Each structure stands twice: as structure tokens, then as C-alpha cells.
Amino acid sequence: MTTQDQTIEAAGAPATPRRIGAHVGGWQVVDDAAARDVLNPADTRERVAVVTRSGPEVVDQALEVARDAAPSWGRTSALQRGAILARAAEIMASRAEEVAIAMTREMGKIIAESRVEAQRSAEFLRFFAQAPKLQAGATFPLGAPDEQAFTLRAPLGVVGLITPWNFPLSIPVWKTAAALAFGNAVVLKPAELSPWSAALMVECLLEAGLPPEVLSMLPGSGSEIGPALVDSPVTAGISFTGSTPVGREIVRRGAHAGTRMQCEMGGRNAIVVMADADLDAAISAIVNAGFGTTGQRCTSSSRVIVERSIADEVTERLVQAASALSVGPGLDPANDIGPLASAKQLDDVLDALDRATSAGTEIVWGGSRLSEGRLAHGHFMEPTLTRDRVDNWFAGHEPFGPVISIFEADDFEDALAMNNSVEYGLASSIFTRDLAHAMRFVHESDTGMVHVNRPTVGAEPHIPFGGAKASSIGPPEMGGAHEFYTKSRSAHVRWA
Ligand code: NAP
Ligand code: MG
After folding, report:
1. Is pLDDT at 79 greater than 90 in this prediction?
2. What are the structural domains of the chain?
3. Model confidence over 110-130: pLDDT tens digits?
4. DSSP characters for 202-244?
């Protein structure tokens, strides 16, 4: 047994639930009368956290603290801000196992994925520690020899961050690190299901020396406190990740308040498999990107578009792969697929499958809830494969669960059209050995991220991350983050 396995075994026993208050200049005490429980989705008998339910008045308080702290934080040098983020990265890396176990307990993903997410989150902090130093502007001549113009980028001021539960640590981290690196003060509203992971991020940043006023965190319900955060004139920008309907509602409100908006939303991402593809590589990418994180990744490959001549073979191989996957609690390293994050998430996926099957979708593997034995108290379901024609409701519906929908295409043109036929446009991929098809796909697939012979998932800190169509509004994140978190200023200078 490795040390890591021992850690998990020790963590397997229900622990005292973690108490999480709002952080506004300092941690607030949890008021039990206004608190709610976070339950382990693998076994809802375990209460993993007792969490404050912040109301709109706490939003105003946090925004005031942030507004007062923003100017001096914005004036600290990029090197000083970077040094704090770099220290936070090392603290997070040293606490990675604790953080990983918290994530698995809180939202269910398997421990191997939580470990990767903890390390990746430390990488995001390291990347953004350096990013502001690389900011370059442009210089321009003006009318006279003793005049010059140049551009610089200034912080926005106070930014509000609203995050989902599926990457409970890394999404709060990549937004917060970027916002802080570029000199902004932050008010973060994590998902109701995953405040613990966000609280651990706040702890790492505070321990690294971040002034507490610069980062507030408000656990609570999005519909109750989100509008107060979006509507406030103090909020200069909102960066949101979540579902398309909520993102669009936030954009409507933000437009009214004149707030800069960035929204990363849903996807119905396809992997196109051409008859000339390396099928071993394609199958492994589909299984990883379709069932990983129980299918609850925005970049999940929930659609597979296969050239008709190999559709039966691909389907059979996917059935084989799905049947070999073990579903169970994520803290047990033997499991490949954990529970859905909540009862509602599980119900939504099963309802979507019901609706699809009544419209003619065929389930070729799985499709049911799992509740036998040790799965009885969790939100588990079978990895599921469906087979379909393109022109139904399901082709455009993001299942956000362990469901891969197989569609058949006549040829490349048909596959490309099917790939582009949905409302979403986050990520896409093609498996082929034909360079012309690969390059045409890169140019004509209407998604913000395109892959060739790779899964649709994955995010690198230095590469812009964002989608097209109903998947994104505003500039991309990560490698493109400076565009959102800073405003451009053109300076015109005469010195004689
Ligand atoms: P969601 O319901 O839209 O929630 C996202 C966040 O918005 C949560 O913090 C939520 O708070 C908050 N919220 C809810 N209603 C709000 C309102 N009226 N005003 C302000 N905030 C509000 O999304 P989800 O179910 O957590 O996440 C799943 C979705 O996220 C999927 O569609 C997935 O594709 C998408 N996603 C996209 C990306 C990407 O980068 N493109 C990444 C990950 C996930 P509560 O938790 O309190 O409801
Ligand atoms: Mg939701």
C-alpha cells in the first residue's frame, strides 16, 4: 500500500464536517441558522461541510472591502504580486493530497483526477505569477519629434468571479490567479456544491501573503447572491463559468450595468472519427474525454461522429471499453468513474436519456442508475453509449453526464456539417491520417478549440481557452486572460 493509498484510507472514515464561512477581509464565523450542508455525492450519509449561506448584504460588504483594497493592490509591482502567487503555488503543491481528497469528497470525481487537478492548479498559479511581467505594449510616433504615444494595460478594479463545481479548484484558481496577477481585487462566488475546494485555494493564497481584503469568497446560492454581484456599479467585470442559460442571464444583467463580461458555458463537443484513423488512439481518446469526470467536463466529447463504414466497429469497441469501467466512490483508486455531483445532476441526465429514447435514440450500453450495495447512497449511473441520427433534439443537448452519443456520417463533408450543426461551439476533434481533412477541419470546425488526433479535453495555462457560438461570450481565459482582466490605455506624451 502506498502512502497515498494510506492517506485515502484514513480519509475514508467520515470526518468532522469542515465549517466554511464567507471570507470578507477575514474568515467569518458560520452562523448555523443560515448554514447548509455539503453532502458526499458518493455517500450522502456523509456531511463533508457545513457552509454559510451568504445573502445579498454580504455581497455589498465584500464589494466595499474590494473597492477600498483595489487601488493599492493595483499599484503594487507585478513582481510583488507574482511572488505571492508563486508562493501560493508551492503551498498548494505541498497540500495537493489534502486538497485532492477534499475535491473527491465534495463533488465526487475520482482521486486520480483530483490529484491532477490539484497539481494543475499549482501550475496555473505559477504561470500567472509570471504572466504580468510579459505584458508588452506598442509605441507609436506622434506629430512632433518630441512626442510619442504608447499603450499600457491597467487593472479593471474589482472583478466578480462565478464558478461551477465540475473543476471545483482549478476554475476558481485560473480566474483568481489571473485577476490578482493583473492587479484586480476579487469577489468569488463558488458553486454551492463545492465551496470547500474554493476555501482551500483562499487559504493557500492568504498563507502566501495575499492581503486578505484583496480576495473575498462568498459561499451561497447563485440565484440569491449572483444578481447583487452582477448589478453592482462597483463590479467592473464578471467572469463566469457555468451553463449557457445562466451565463446569458448574467450577460443581460451585466450589459444593463455596463459591466465587462466573460462567460465560458456549455458544449456538445464532437470527436470525428474518419475511416483512416488510428482507431486505438481514437477509442482511448473518446473513452477518456467522454467518461472522464463522469462526463461532467465542459470539454467532454459527448458526441462521436463516425464515418459509416466503421460505425459498427467503433460502437463495438466502445461497448467493450465501457463494459470494462468500474463505477464507484472516487476515493477508492480501483474505480474509473465516480458519482454524478448531485441528485439533480443525475436526474437531469436520466431525464435527458428518457426524452432522447422516446424520440428514437437507441441505448447500446448502460443508461441506468446504479444503486446496488455500496452504491446505494450515492448518485451513480452506468457509463452509457447511445446511437442516433443527427436531426433530433438530443444531438444539440449537452448531457453533462457519462453519456457518449454516436452518430454516423456519410463522409468528411457530412461529418463536418454535423459537427457544426449544434448551437454550441466549445471544442472539437478529428481523428484522421489525411492531412487535407485534418487542416480543413481546423479551419472549418466552428469551435473555439480544435484538436487533431487528440481528445477534446485539456487546458494549458499559456494557451487561450474559450469557445464559439453558445459556448462563450467575451475574450478567452488562461493564455488570453490579460484581455479580460486589464483595460488598454493609450498614452500621448510630449516632453519638450
Ligand atoms: P450553473 O448552474 O450555470 O452554475 C454556475 C455558477 O453560476 C454557480 O456558481 C451557480 O451558483 C451560479 N449561478 C446560478 N444561478 C445564477 C444567477 N442567476 N446569477 C448568478 N450566478 C448564478 O452551471 P453548473 O450546473 O454549475 O455547471 C455545469 C455547466 O457549466 C455545464 O453547462 C458546463 O458545460 C459548464 N461549464 C463550462 C466550462 C467552460 O469553460 N466552458 C467549464 C466548466 C463547466 P449555485 O451553485 O449556487 O447554483
Ligand atoms: Mg446549476
Report:
1. yes
2. 3-265+472-490 (3.40.605.10), 270-461 (3.40.309.10)
3. 999 999 999 999 999 999 999
4. HHHHHHTT--GGGEEE--S-HHHHHHHHHH-TT--EEEEES-H
